[in-house]
Fold this protein.
Amino acid sequence: QARLEESFETLKEHYQRDYSLIMQTLQEERYRCERLEEQLNDLTELHQNEILNLKQELASMEEKIAYQSYERARDIQEALEACQTRISKMELQQQQQQVVQLEGLENATARNLLGKLINILLAVMAVLLVFVSTVANCVVPLMKTRNRTFSTLFLVVFIAFLWKHWDALFSYVERFFSSPR
């Protein structure tokens, strides 16, 4: 019975130690759980605050975008109205010009023909100037010295003489080659 009591006391002490150890562990776990719960509550509150801030920012951005789109739509509407006004003015001017053109069609045709005639005359004058300048560029080397000048003058007189008496010269040459010997 004494051994049984001793064994019971040992077992009681052992259970008492285990009980105190379990209670200490349980207290630590409870403390840790409370800390985790506080952290979770803090995080939940922070998350809710962030969501609230995001909602407020979204609402603010939505208002800004609505205002900007309203401003842009108004600017576009003003630009369209200005464009329509310009188009109306241009159509009115075109109608007025058509009336003026119908009245002055004869004058315009005459002016147009005169302008074309002047352009043709200018083109002919340009061709003549090019021809004269080409002839002058060809003649200038032939007139640089006295000998060249006299030779050129003699050649021109000889060509003029041949030109003037071409018929007689041609008939003489023809008789010369055609007559039998």
Observations:
- Residues 1-120 form one domain.
- The CA atoms of residues 20 and 26 lie 9 Å apart.
- The radius of gyration is 60 Å.
